[in-house]
Design a protein that fits this description.
This protein has 15 helices and 5 strands. With 301 residues, the chain is α+β, with helices and mostly antiparallel strands. Helix 5 (120-129) runs antiparallel to helix 9 (182-194), helix 5 (120-129) packs across helix 12 (222-233) and helix 14 (262-271) crosses helix 15 (276-288).
Amino acid sequence: MRLSVKCPEHYDLLSSVHAWIFPDIQPVPEQTGNGYMKRTFTIDDKSVPIIIKQKSPGDKIEVFCNDPSLDPVEVRKKLDQILNLRMDLNSLHTTIANDDEISFILPAIRGLRPYLADTLFEALIKSVLQQQISYRAANVITRRLILALRTATDDIFSFPNANQILSLGEEGLKKLGIGYKTDYVRGVCKQVSEGTLNLEQSAELGFELFAKTLNPIKGVGKWTIEVLAIAGLGDYSIYPYGDLGIQNLLGRIYNDGCRLRRNEVIEISQRWGEQGPLVLYMLMCADVLGFMNVFGRSMYR
């Protein structure tokens, strides 16, 4: 199957993906190269290897997969969801343009759109792995996890399911560098495997009830749930204000390099109204991509 999908003006596939996935640390399970991104997505409960190509920012994307039984409508629906192709960013761009201290990033981030995890399970496991370490370090561990479960025929990778992760055992996971969070990862995987945790079904209850479902799980606290809301649910009304990365980044912009406290991050976010959490998200993306280097070293690398 080959599909051609029209993109929003300026859309930059690779930069949007690289805001979360480092090009030199792959597969996670995404792999990127010159004008393409590939990974296995979940579509209609099937694992589907897909290659997405874009010649240059703003061009249409070409989608390739080898499963002729797939419904093209479902493939497009999946891409719209994961790549956020239908998201209206006009208010966000206006908000950034009207703030003299961050307006300089607008040309660089105009083509960015939030990139979501394939499933809520993937988003949750990755959020747990990101706890207390940099995004780069989390990518390194995710890569080890993917490669530890690879088969000899793998060329396009998928994120492992709960049973696959459990098959590595406690010691196998610790050898990947997950450390004390091994217990957290295994706990999530056991609940998913046993059917006592259905993330997709819980998410339908709305964020507050979804958070209450996750709170009792060992190792899944407020920060993890807030990161999951962004990376898995695509809820940009939420942001982990206690994240050290954003506290340091805003300190570089607004406080002469001194890290801000959580309440100060919230106050700055409130200047931007309902766009506040999404502005913070874009600032984080800009920092990961190196667009904030005018303020010194990235907080997310």
